[in-house]
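fold-stage: in
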Amino acid sequence: MDTQVVCRFLVLILTFFISTPSDAQNFDYADPEIYHSLYTECPKGCICPSQFPRALYCDNKGLKEVPVIPSRIWYLYLHNNEIDSLKEKSFANATEIKWINLSKNKISSKNIEKNVLKKFKNLLYLLLEENDLDGVPAPLPDGLEQLRLARNKISKIPEGVFSKLENLTLLDLHNNKLTDGSFQADAFAGLKNLVQLNVARNSLKKMPTGLPANTVQLYLDNNNIEEIPKNYFKEVPKIAFLRLNYNKLADAGIPENVFNITSMLDLQLSYNELKNMPVVNGHLERLHLDHNKIKNINGSLICPNDVKEEFDPHFPQGPRLRYLRLEGNEMKPPIPLDIMICFRLLRTVVI
């Protein structure tokens, strides 16, 4: 896998564990203006911890609107309130914000003033999950790296809405009201560095098209997808993690070698209607096929390389599959011997 892609993927993982950075060492408490800001400009009911002077905690306060945010703030937490609008006056002086969490509020698209988000030139992370949005807020700041819009009412992705977000690595749109017709032409244009796209729990019947070429993680669980186009993954040659659990995929909807791609490491097809194990590539490490309609598996037919060969220069120890889930199918133990002969690195098999 491309080194730059790996680095971006590692950054994505690390952000799940990041808390507010300790920037106290860069804060000059001797400056009377800063001291005044820290102790007198803290919005009523919010928390302005001295150990994290650039963070403002206004979460879980029952707020109905965003208070006036002090200019020193970089990290703003406003989740789990009753805020229904975003107005420029609240952020008039707060131009250095890097992180905003506005999840679990009542914000609607029509109540977001047009340029209120665009002004945040340093904004990297924007969380607007579980609100009342029916569209992607726009315009957005060009430097944004993560945009989380899950659990809203978004039904359309207009053309060009992401066109300037070249730094975006994560786009989360799961649990909205997206259909096959929701994606306008070139809806994802401009997302040159996107690593993770999550459109799970929508109403898609087809695989989304026009995906960014650098996509590594694609989550499509809990849709109504019935088939995958033959050459679909040619447009995403770096795809490594694919989740298609809880769809309507049957054997007829899966071309013979559609998953036979060297970049794929983790493939999840649980809770579909498959009767046969699809052909996979020797690089695949984890495969979820539980809760389908599989009765038996012919290992010699689906083995990535000829099991009769004693040595394959690409797979000196055999295919790399280490984890296989088969429970909830129509087959019973034991595991077929030819499966174990082919996938010699298998460490966990659930049946």
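fold-stage: in (second)
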Amino acid sequence: MSLSFRKNRRIGFTLVELLVVIAIIGILVGLLLPAVQAAREAARRMQCSNNLKQLGLAMLNYESATKLLPQGRTAGPASQSVFGALLPYMEQVSVYNLIDFNVSATHANNTAARAVQIPTLRCPSDPTGQSPVAGWGVTNYRSNQGSGILNGQPSTVVGNSNYGFPAPNGPLVPSLNIKIGSITDGLSNTAAFSEHPIGDFSNAISTWTDTFQPGTYPATPDEAIQMCYAITVTDLTKQGNSNVGGPWLQSGHTQGSYYHVDVPGRRSCMYPPGRVYTTAKSLHTGGVNVTRCDGSVQFIPNTIDLVAWRAFGTRDGGETTLSGIDQ
């Protein structure tokens, strides 16, 4: 009897039991996957923050060596980004030695330099695995030009016009090395660097990362925002520039600088000649990392008050409203 019972014992699972087990596993995976993804993004955001920290330290070491801050964009036809000057302070002397600072980033003399991908200039949260253009290293980071809409040069530079606008009021401005003492708002109250995703370099229908062209000319930052958001993004006459973030050696609103005209995460627009604003934005959820002029880094939410964000962008505006900024 016992032998017969053992022979007839069921071994294994029934189909129903197997389906129940699979369902339980699926539920557990569904519960755990968002947590795993969140943990991975937290690690990527931390690495991005560390990259910006390194840029801040490089800027301060440059200032310690020269008693001046680097230019946000070099003077003359070269018009190179701030990153070239910072390379010796980022353990990238070999790349620095490749650069011809007398010609533009796209000149043949800088073919080797612009092709190097500097790891510190890439945010791991950006899914763009490599440069969309062969031979162009890219950057996710930008220097702060200020809270205005001027993409020109300081009025002290001969031959340059400010189109009736004041000179850029950020800490890293075109064609001018300012003294750190000029940041009278305080180093911890003034942004130096932030971030921006890499574009698709297609120059087709513009995407969130691109810069649009409304075709009209604003007189104030507020008017610039209104014009920027009045356009239809699928209107081919308003398409801007999707060559965003490359090459890292080149400066300008699509490669090396950003503005505190509008809050992070918003649309960017340019109004040639001379008027433009590129917003800070990122692939992080809800905001962007920002390096202060004292070298510290803070995550700033996209919901920050516009008045406070603009105040954070100026070096000597004397503003007192910095709601949402750690002080």
